[in-house]
């Protein structure tokens, strides 16, 4: 049933609902169960194998939730990638601490922050969502929970990340890097065959951060937000700025009010840029996907790319950029 029909019916029934401008909801289905676009996976940066893994799973009929989890796990295990999972850059004391979240079409989510010695924080986040009465676990509690769930303890600091950290210690200059070799936090949004959307986001956070620092990536509404009636958005870049603006929630709300994913990303970025005159010195990037399968992306600095898997093709796309 279309929401417009629903509104007509309830008001005809005279149930005394407050007056609502029905135009706001025109053509928005109340509960949309299918998409005409077919399955799509979109992923931040150039994590081609991760996005292909998710896209192929979707083509075989996997749920969006399974696809995002399996997709981002590829990068969590990739030790060449120093921004996610095993091999991630440590904090300034040499500890690799991971943040991740996953959000399901039914609006539920799981999140872990400041998790150490576990290779797949996204899967721990999913367990938090499915096996506990909570949504977020942090630090030692998250680690203990993971071990109880059967995750193996692993050393996440690779010799390469350790060597880079030791080099950093010589100067100890803390400055967020704008685009880390074209790969960084992985954020993924999937739309499945049934038209359901899910998302995941996983990171080792900013290199050489203070111990205990948590960024936007595991925070629902900042690093990731999904609303299965509207669409989803994920963010990458300087978490502090994304957190201050609750950017992915804002993007989804803008799409709800009729903006395209592209327009929504641009308006949300405008908010960050207006509030912080220092915007030339940091990067933030967004991708958004709506229920129609339309995709948008926006970033501050050139250099951010993202991937779209659709109809068996994994295409790298250049984001529109503010500067
Ligand atoms: C954070 N947003 O921890 C993440 C890291 C990132 O580009 O995406 N860096 O702030």
Automatic annotation (TrEMBL):
One of its GO terms (cellular component) is cytoplasm. It comes from the Bacteria. The active site is at residue 185. InterPro entries: Ntn_hydrolases_N, Peptidase_T2. Substrate binds at residues 213-216, 236-239. One of its GO terms (molecular function) is hydrolase activity, acting on carbon-nitrogen (but not peptide) bonds, in linear amides. CDD domains: Glycosylasparaginase (cd04513). The record marks 184-185 as: Cleavage. Coiled coil: none annotated. PANTHER family: L-ASPARAGINASE, N(4)-(BETA-N-ACETYLGLUCOSAMINYL)-L-ASPARAGINASE. This is N(4)-(Beta-N-acetylglucosaminyl)-L-asparaginase. The lineage of its organism: Bacteria, Pseudomonadati, Bacteroidota, Flavobacteriia, Flavobacteriales.
């Amino acid at each position: 049933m279309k929401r417009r029909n629903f509104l007509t019916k309830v008001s005809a029934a005279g149930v005394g609902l407050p007056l609502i401008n029905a135009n706001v909801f025109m053509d928005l289905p109340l509960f949309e169960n299918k998409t005409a676009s077919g399955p799509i996976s979109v992923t931040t940066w150039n994590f081609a194998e991760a996005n292909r893994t998710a896209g192929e799973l979707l083509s075989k009929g996997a749920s969006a939730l399974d696809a995002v989890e399996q997709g981002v796990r590829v990068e969590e295990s990739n030790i060449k990638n120093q921004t996610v999972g095993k091999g991630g850059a440590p904090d300034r004391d040499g500890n690799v601490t991971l943040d991740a979240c996953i959000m399901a079409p039914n609006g539920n989510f799981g999140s872990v922050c400041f998790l150490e010695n576990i290779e797949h924080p996204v899967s721990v986040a999913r367990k938090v969502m499915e096996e506990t009465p909570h949504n977020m676990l942090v630090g030692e509690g998250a680690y203990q929970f993971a071990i109880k769930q059967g995750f193996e303890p692993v050393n996440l600091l690779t010799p390469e990340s350790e060597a880079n950290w030791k080099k950093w210690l010589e100067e100890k200059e803390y400055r967020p890097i704008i685009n880390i070799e074209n790969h960084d936090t992985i954020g993924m949004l999937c739309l499945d065959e049934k038209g359901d959307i899910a998302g995941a986001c996983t990171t080792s956070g900013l290199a050489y951060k203070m111990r205990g620092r948590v960024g936007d990536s595991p925070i629902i509404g900042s690093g990731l937000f999904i609303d299965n009636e509207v669409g989803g958005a994920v963010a990458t870049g300087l978490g502090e700025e994304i957190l201050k603006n609750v950017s992915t929630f804002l993007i989804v709300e803008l799409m709800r009010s009729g903006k395209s994913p592209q327009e929504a990303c641009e308006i949300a970025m405008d908010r960050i840029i207006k509030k912080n005159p220092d915007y030339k010195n940091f990067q933030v990037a967004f991708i958004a996907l709506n229920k129609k399968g339309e995709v948008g992306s926006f970033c501050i600095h050139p250099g951010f790319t993202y991937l779209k898997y659709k109809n068996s093709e994994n295409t790298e796309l250049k984001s529109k950029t503010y500067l």
